[in-house]
5-oxoprolinase subunit A
Amino acid sequence: MDINSDLGESFGAWRMGDDAAMLGIVTSANVACGFHAGDPAGILETLRAAAQRGVAVGAHVAYPDLVGFGRRNMDPTSQELVADVIYQIGSLQGLAAAAGTRVRYVKPHGALYNTIAQDERQANDVITALLAVDPSVTLMALAGAPLIGWARARGLRVVAEAFADRAYNDDGSLVSRRLPGAVLHDADAIAERMLRLVQTGEVESITGRSVPVQADSICVHGDSPGAVEMARRIRARLEQAGVALRPFVD
């Protein structure tokens, strides 16, 4: 199993998360590309730390929405969205090369992630961008989303992920952040929840139902309160149960 986290999101004097601590726990790092968060110097620092730790690096591409942290819905034209994603991946590739690592996968962020899970037009725009830059990169997507089939049909490798710190609806979608209980905080309960996911392929929905979630990676949001302790507890619980932890990319 892989554990990933969203990193490189600090912006100047505004600090977001603890990248150094998270990179000692996770096996993959979704690194911001400057559109929803992150500045070049901070991103480069995170990439260097990831390279030193042997953590796989992915491009955390987003809508151009610094004020909204990439969590506001947008409706760019296909021409805009394709170019925006190409631009972000290319920028991170340059910084990654300077840091002694490379971009192995792409994970869309926030509103873009949720939109392309279901919206075929925007999904195909993102797929087109990945194929144009590097057809060998892996796309990380929400487990069970139609996006997975669309991307595989066009020749991309796709890895499905589950969210440790987010509540699920009965249909396997994520509970909106605007609703109570959408974000989970109890580190021990979350660790047990993720062990159940690994062992059974199921999570408990917000209504208490068992929901099938087939995933090869577990995400802990780096900006969540207590994120480092949450990731640490998840890793410890999985290792205690004999689960091998490694990046999903070779």
About this structure: Helices lie at 19-22, 40-53, 78-99, 110-116, 120-133, 146-153, 187-200, 227-240. The domain at 2-240 is CATH 3.20.20.370 (TIM Barrel). The first strand starts at residue 2 and ends at 7. The chain has a mean pLDDT of 96.
